[in-house]
Amino acid sequence: MSFHEVRFPTRISYGAVGGPRFSTTVQVLNSGYEQRNINWAEARREYSFDISPSRGAEWTAVLDFFHARRGRAYGFRLKDFGDFVMPAQAMAIGDGAETAFQITKRYVDEDMLAPAYERPLKKIVAGSVSVAVEGAPLASGWSVDNASGLLTFDTAPGEGDEITVSCEFDVPVRFDTDLMQSAIPGPDIHHWQNVKLVEIRL
């Protein structure tokens, strides 16, 4: 398995710089006009941060974590402090037969100049999910696979029933390097700068 269900220590990742990256090819024509083509249907998030200075148990935790992931080999969870909550959203409509639904967050432009951006959430935080059908909260009768973001009902919601979900989620990422290039400027003082993480598609 190329993904480990473990979260990067939040005390270290807090303050990371980064966010979603889209891929667009821009061609400037002879007339000066541009032709822009969307290459990716979904954004890919990138993050960077400095671990500096780090001492004692904190540095040991970083060292152990990097070795366990074998550099770029294994993915892991990251809490993106800028976007880790999905407030209650109407996520799907029942058809009377379907019981499984992918948890998806919608980003909606207030001016409605573009269609809503739908982001499948694949790494759900355990115990954070709330579900309602037609506005009625459900305490039971459903389950969530936190490793895939799949919501499954014991009984299919009725045709036309609105399914609302709220939750917290992580981003599946990996290190963008196989080399831990750290510096030791003094006794038990460690610096690892410009640590980069990239989102992986699952």
Notes on the protein architecture:
The strands form four sheets. Strands 1, 2, 5, 6, 7, 11, 12, 13, 16, 17 and 18 form an eleven-stranded mixed sheet that branches. Strands 8-15-14 form a three-stranded antiparallel sheet, with no helix packed on it. A two-stranded antiparallel ribbon has the order 3-4. The model has no long low-confidence stretch (mean pLDDT 95). Helix content is 9%, strand content 50%. A hairpin with a 5-residue loop joins β3 (24-28) and β4 (34-38). By secondary structure, the chain is mainly β. It folds into two domains: 3-79 and 172-199, no CATH class; 85-171, no CATH class. The N and C termini lie close together (12 Å). The protein is globular and about 65 Å long.
The largest β sheet comes out as: 11 strands, mixed
Global mean pLDDT: 95
Q: Termini distance?
A: 12 Å
Q: Which stretches are low in confidence, meaning pLDDT under 50 for 5 or more residues running?
A: none
Strand content range: over 45%
Ordered list of secondary-structure elements with their pairings:
Elements: E1 3-7, H1 10-13, E2 17-21, E3 24-28, E4 34-38, E5 44-54, H2 56-69, E6 75-78, E7 85-93, E8 100-102, E9 104-107, E10 117-120, E11 123-124, E12 130-133, E13 136-138, E14 142-145, E15 150-153, E16 162-175, E17 183-186, E18 189-199
Parallel strand pairs: 1-6
Antiparallel strand pairs: 2-5, 3-4, 5-18, 6-16, 7-16, 8-15, 9-10, 11-16, 12-13, 12-16, 14-15, 16-18, 17-18
